[in-house]
């Protein structure tokens, strides 16, 4: 494949691109990955014609589409030779090891500490993370790790970053209320490459788990079965989900207003209390969208990939391209995404104009990322 558009050239086994110099190396390699399914692209004037592997022609990709194509996907575009299968096996082992620790602690007295006024942490959060780390470190000792409880460890020169939330939905867990999960994603140069979420459903005397998995370009699955987002395209027929973090700042206030607005204009807005589970419910097609301000990379990385791979859409709440290091996320079935943004985007832009900090956070120092 060849594209003639400017001065930066990138090649892969099947693809060669010449792109504008102004495009960063990271953005260019992301684009390379996102167009690699196309076997030929010829640019004439401001339009391109593409032929995909089944010979179907698609036309009309303007030069301005470059940034849109790059921005539209959050998943990683390369594994740098590490087979996804190997990663999935370790994700699966780590997720299930973590889930065993949580299962063993259910319906038993807990030891609760406080990170903030209402921000709980239990000994199970810490023990689960240790169990997960043991599995990951044994197989990939040179990978970088960002765990909610243990922070950053491993080699900061690694392109692989494991984002681990050992127990997402700690408050629910502490109360024995369903909706909590183990959430693990591995990023390649900042983009989610593969992920698992083990959701605890049911409740006292009836706990069960279901396991979500996804890999970039490989689809999303629940207990091994392919899953898809819903097809509903009407906000007024949507079941929506949101969340409220522990920091009760201006973004939290704005989301209360959005909660009120959409409770009035949709079939309802749920607030379950486990971001990874909320995303998986959108991927599963049982909810149509979920959004929240101020989540951390370990809250969002796995769930966001799950939604994208189930055919949904993921952006920031101001509509911009999403990275796991951003401070807002909206995931949806795609069909209602722009309709929801009509209200959510200006509300978020107002917060930005008012000076609220939306810069990226929690990216480990020295980590080599394309986002
Ligand atoms: C929390 C949950 C919750 C969300 C908070 C998160 P934790 O994670 O995902 O749904 O509203 O913002 O911090 O503390 O239970 O792992
Ligand atoms: Ca969490
Ligand atoms: Ca947690």
Automatic annotation (TrEMBL):
Q: Which reaction does it catalyse?
A: a myo-inositol phosphate + H2O = myo-inositol + phosphate
Task: Establish whether keyword Metal-binding is in the entry.
Answer: yes
Cofactor requirements of the protein: Mg(2+)
What's the domain of life for this entry?
Answer: Eukaryota
The metabolic or biological pathway listed in the UniProt record of this protein is: Polyol metabolism; myo-inositol biosynthesis; myo-inositol from D-glucose 6-phosphate: step 2/2
- According to its UniProt record, the EC number is 3.1.3.25
Record bears the keyword Hydrolase: yes
In its UniProt record, which GO terms are filed under biological process? inositol biosynthetic process; inositol metabolic process; phosphatidylinositol phosphate biosynthetic process; signal transduction
Per UniProt, the enzyme's principal EC class comes to hydrolase
Q: Which Pfam families match?
A: Inositol_P (PF00459)
GO MF entry, a single one = inositol monophosphate 1-phosphatase activity
The alphabetized UniProt keywords are: Hydrolase, Magnesium, Metal-binding
- So where does Mg(2+) get bound? 148, 165, 167-168, 299
The family note in this entry says: Belongs to the inositol monophosphatase superfamily.
Protein name in UniProt:
Inositol-1-monophosphatase
